[in-house]
Design brief:
Blueprint lengths: L1 H19 L7 E3 L6 H10 L3 E5 L9 E2 L14 E2 L4 E4 L4 E5 L11 H6 L7 E9 L5 E6 L4 E2 L5 E2 L1 H11 L3 E7 L6 E7 L1 H10 L7 H5 L2 H15 L8 E6 L19 H7 L1 H7 L4
Parallel strand pairs: 1-2, 12-13
Antiparallel strand pairs: 2-3, 3-4, 5-6, 6-7, 7-8, 9-10, 11-12
Length: 282
């Protein structure tokens, strides 16, 4: 049945998607930010294999990568180490890298250099991960971002945030909170280009961005996706409450880095009243 469905879908839909990418793509490389495994599977079903990789400035960028050949690619992983590169994990799960791509140190800053290397010369990436029996590596969180609830459970917000972006086409930013609290919550911003045509269908056309995203219809929309998200999370990770912000996060406000990564502490500071509203009992 699946083969029959594919035979119909390929010329009608999937081939058109491939053509939008030029029609001659053998595979694509993804890096810089987590790629949701379901998004990767969708592209693979279309015939566009996305090979996710990983690296840092300090490791000369390319450290691990999935390859397009069968058996050398695992969805949800960042692949296996580059030739000559050795990757291990510390007792707390931090990914450690040793190899020819690793920097010698930060120029003119021996103290900073000493802080990021182990005694045997392994670079401490700050990312948490796990390595399976075949050597494929999965990122499970950012060491400095992982927080603990008041119930003693650890939550890796980056994984949840990446999953939401693969799940909901309307979300621009989804900032998971909960450090020291008894449940997780989120600050949400919506993508202006995606939400505008949706707003027209809801009879909200002509409204400002702030009016659209703070409408009851927008809240119901986000709630539906949050409910879907929660069904795939552990009980202590589920998003109990959320607030939709009346503007998106910006580089100019210092809430995003030049590479568009989230500056979590800045966001929490700028939207302190909204954060407080998510934990009224505190």
């Amino acid at each position: 049945m699946t083969r029959a469905q594919f035979a119909v879908a390929d010329p009608l839909v999937l081939a058109k998607v491939r053509e939008r990418f030029g029609g001659r793509i053998r595979f694509l490389i993804s890096g810089s930010a987590p790629l949701d495994a379901d998004v990767a599977r969708w592209f693979a079903a279309v015939g566009l294999t996305v090979c996710e990789g990983y690296g840092l400035t300090e490791t000369s960028a390319f450290t691990t990568v999935n390859l397009p050949e069968p058996g050398r690619h695992v969805f949800g992983s960042i692949g296996r180490p580059a030739p000559g590169t050795e990757i291990t994990t510390a007792a707390d799960g931090e990914i450690l890298v040793k190899g020819p791509g690793v920097m010698r140190g930060y120029h003119g800053n021996p103290d900073a250099t000493a802080a990021v290397f182990t005694e045997d010369g392994r670079f401490c990436t700050g990312d948490l991960g796990e390595i399976d029996e075949r050597g494929f590596i999965r990122i499970t969180g950012r060491k400095k971002d992982v927080f603990k609830t008041s119930g003693g459970k650890y939550v890796a917000p980056g994984l949840i945030e990446a999953h939401v972006k693969g799940l909901c086409p309307y979300v621009s930013q989804f900032v998971v909170l909960g450090d020291g609290h008894n449940y997780a919550s989120a600050l949400v911003t919506l993508d202006a280009e995606a939400i505008t045509p949706w707003a027209a269908e809801q009879g909200l056309d002509g409204g400002s961005y702030a009016e659209i995203v703070t409408s009851p219809q927008a809240r119901d929309l986000v709630q539906g996706y949050v409910d879907e998200l929660n069904r795939g999370l552990n009980r202590w990770e589920t998003i109990k409450r959320f607030a939709i912000l009346d503007r998106d996060l910006t580089l100019e406000a210092g809430e995003l880095t030049p590479s568009m990564k989230l500056r979590r502490s800045v966001v929490l500071d700028h939207f302190a009243p909204q954060v407080e509203s998510l934990y009224p009992a505190n």
